[in-house]
Each structure stands twice: as structure tokens, then as C-alpha cells.
């Protein structure tokens, strides 16, 4: 994933500010003087529900399992083997698997053999939630000074999102009571094959997120619709914070608010912070734009270094040592709560 240009972002925020001041003006004009507004307090009382417990330990193990294959770089043995392993895992855990195999051209002309894995649960339910992560590893650790042309383990970037969805699937499949809504997990391929800085030649649009672009243009079921989607990317680092990312806030602010409020209720407000962050080109951008499904991104935002991403990002430090089971649990339990609270 990459940060969308600052220029564009500034323009967006300017136009949002103009819109806001216009609407405040209209509101003031339409108010009658000396009339006190009626205050309404809506107290949200949620019924108690029992949800399956998400295990941080087993999710951590699923990161290890992926890392053990080696970097899951497209066109490699590790990629193929891990793809087979993931497919089998979800089938064993109650999912209906569709393998979407396709060829895509990388920024340097390489033909990539890619495979999106789509796993459906409760396929009869018309109302569906889409959960996604990318399962490929970036072919180069191009933010690292040492060996920038070699891939990292991709423990957090790729591995963590998949591991959360694996444990979510296991926990729900093992539970007696299932969510009322249907849900689909899509593991996108080729997300992280974007053009690196060291590649000579002009900047190429759309070199990232190859799997989500392909799926958005060729859905596994032409009539597929989801009520909304949640993408996970880099959701396993110790003390990770997730901000309200720009693309998510422009396309699906109410989903962001619902997810953040749900996390806070569960006691995970230390991870899901009420801070707005710049827009990111990640799989959710194409799902919003091309597939017209409102989708948000839960992606780590590191406030301290001004780089958006954590210091391990696209370096060889992205290994199992950055992963913390408490962060995986915070994200996974929040998603389970969302699914079980969603009404038909
Ligand atoms: Zn990445």
C-alpha cells in the first residue's frame, strides 16, 4: 500500500471545510430566533449477546504458520504452498472456497500468477459482510538499507490480517451460535507488488492492489453484493494504533464510526484511536471505487515518526518479533462482535 499524494489530500480537506461552513450557514439561517432547540438524548442500550472468544494465541500461531513457508511472493514455491494451505484451512473450518486464479502484469512487465481466495459462510443469507486482507508478501524490503531487493517475512504486512481472519473463521465455526448475517472472507493476492522507488521509469498508476482490482472487475459471483466491508492490513504489531483513514472516511464514515465504537465498548480504545489520518491506496480503495461496496481499512498508523507506517514497514524487521497477540485479539474480537451484532 502507499500513501496517496498530499496535494490531493489537501484539496479534499479544503473542499470538505468549504462544504461544512456552507452547511453551518444554511443551518443558522433556517433557525428561528428565540426558539430553544429541543434536546434529545439517545441512550444506546445494547442487548447482551454471547459471542465466541477470539484467541490471540492461535491467531499468533497462524502468523507463524504463514511465515514458515517463507515470503509469499507471487510466482514462488512458498506462495503456491501457502495458498494451498490457506484454502485447506478455511475449508476445514466450515467455509465454501472459491479460488480465483488469474494472470496480472506487474509494474516491470512480469507476468504474475495470482490467486484470490474467496471463502463464504452462511451463503444463503442475503445480507453479507465482506472481510478481507492481502495474503501476498512484497517482493522487496525496499524501505530497508540492507538488502532492499530481498523480501521480508511479511509477518505483519500480509500475515497478520490473514491470521486474524483465520482465527475468526475457526472461532465462529466452532461456536454453536453463528451470526445472523452471512459473511465472506477474501484473501487478495498481489496487493504488495507495487512499483518500488528503485525502479527506473515514470510512476505507474494502479501498480498496487492487483488482486482487489481483478476481483472488483470480475466478482466471483456477478451479482455479489455486501452491505459493507472491512479490510485488515498490518493489524498485529505490539501497541499498534489504528486511525480513521482518509479513504475509509470519505466512502464509509458511518462504518468507521461503528467499528471504532464497537472496539471501544470492548475496551480496545487504546488501539482504535479517534484520530483522522491521510488516505492510503490499499485494497479497500478499489473495492469502494470499482466494486461500489463501502469498505474501510483497519491499518496501523504510527503517529510518532511522521511516516504513517510502523518502522518495520517494508523492511526486514517485519518478522514475527513485531507481532503481539493482544493486538490480534483486539482486532479479531471487534470483528466477531460486529458480525454478531449485525441485524438482518
Ligand atoms: Zn505492504
Please provide a written account of the structure.
There is one protein chain. With 344 residues, the chain is α/β, with parallel strands linked by helices. The chain has nine helices and ten strands. It has helices at 6-30, 56-68, 77-92, 155-174, 210-217, 246-251, 253-265, 283-289, 325-341; strands spanning 2-3, 96-105, 111-121, 128-134, 182-188, 228-233, 242-245, 272-277, 280-281, 295-299. The strands form three sheets. Strands 2-3-5-4-6-10 form a six-stranded mixed sheet, with helices on both faces. Strands 1-9 form a two-stranded antiparallel ribbon. The protein has a two-stranded parallel sheet with strand order 7-8. α2 (56-68) crosses α9, α5 runs parallel beside α8 (283-289) and α7 (253-265) packs across α9. The longest helix has 25 residues, at 6-30. The chain starts with a strand and ends with a helix. Mean pLDDT is 90; it is low at 6-36. The structure holds zinc ion. Zinc ion is lined by residues 1, 138, 157, 192, 314.
Reconstruct the topology from this structure.
Blueprint: E1 2-3, H1 6-30, H2 56-68, H3 77-92, E2 96-105, E3 111-121, E4 128-134, H4 155-174, E5 182-188, H5 210-217, E6 228-233, E7 242-245, H6 246-251, H7 253-265, E8 272-277, E9 280-281, H8 283-289, E10 295-299, H9 325-341
Parallel strand pairs: 4-5, 4-6, 6-10, 7-8
Antiparallel strand pairs: 1-9, 2-3, 3-5
Helix pairs in contact: 2-4, 2-9, 4-9, 5-8, 7-9
Bound molecules: zinc ion.
Amino acid at each position: 500500500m502507499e500513501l496517496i499524494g498530499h496535494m490531493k489530500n489537501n484539496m479534499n480537506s479544503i473542499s470538505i471545510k468549504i462544504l461544512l461552513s456552507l452547511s453551518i450557514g444554511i443551518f443558522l439561517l433556517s433557525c428561528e430566533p428565540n426558539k430553544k432547540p429541543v434536546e434529545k438524548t439517545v441512550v444506546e442500550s445494547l442487548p447482551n449477546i454471547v459471542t465466541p472468544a477470539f484467541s490471540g494465541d492461535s491467531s499468533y500461531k497462524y502468523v507463524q504458520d504463514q511465515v514458515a513457508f517463507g515470503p509469499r511472493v507471487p510466482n514462488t514455491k512458498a506462495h503456491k504452498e501457502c495458498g494451498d494451505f490457506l484454502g485447506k484451512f478455511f475449508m476445514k473450518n466450515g467455509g465454501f472456497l472459491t479460488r480465483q486464479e488469474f494472470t496480472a502484469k506487474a509494474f516491470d512487465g512480469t507476468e504474475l500468477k495470482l490467486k484470490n481466495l474467496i471463502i463464504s459462510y452462511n451463503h444463503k443469507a442475503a445480507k453479507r459482510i465482506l472481510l478481507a486482507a492481502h495474503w501476498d508478501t512484497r517482493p522487496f524490503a525496499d524501505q530497508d538499507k540492507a538488502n532492499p531487493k530481498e523480501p521480508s517475512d511479511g509477518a505483519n504486512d500480509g500475515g497478520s490480517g490473514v491470521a486474524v481472519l483465520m482465527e475468526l473463521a475457526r472461532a465462529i465455526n466452532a461456536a454453536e451460535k453463528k451470526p445472523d448475517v452471512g459473511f465472506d472472507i477474501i484473501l487478495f493476492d498481489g496487493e504488495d507488488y507495487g512499483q518500488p522507488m528503485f525502479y527506473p521509469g515514470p510512476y505507474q498508476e494502479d501498480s498496487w492492489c492487483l488482486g482487489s482490482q481483478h476481483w472488483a472487475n470480475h466478482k466471483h459471483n456477478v451479482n455479489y453484493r455486501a452491505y459493507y466491508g472491512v479490510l485488515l492490513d498490518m493489524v498485529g504489531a505490539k501497541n499498534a494504533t489504528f486511525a480513521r483513514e482518509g479513504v475509509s472516511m470519505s466512502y464509509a464514515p458511518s462504518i468507521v464510526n461503528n467499528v471504532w465504537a464497537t472496539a471501544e465498548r470492548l475496551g480496545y480504545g487504546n488501539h482504535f484511536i479517534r484520530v483522522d489520518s491521510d488516505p492510503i491506496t490499499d485494497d479497500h480503495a478499489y473495492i469502494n471505487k470499482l466494486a461500489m461496496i463501502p469498505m474501510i481499512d483497519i491499518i496501523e498508523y504510527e503517529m510518532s515518526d511522521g511516516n504513517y507506517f510502523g518502522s518495520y514497514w517494508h523492511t526486514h524487521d517485519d518478522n514475527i518479533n513485531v507481532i503481539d497477540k493482544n493486538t490480534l485479539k483486539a482486532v479479531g474480537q471487534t470483528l466477531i462482535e460486529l458480525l454478531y451484532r449485525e441485524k438482518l
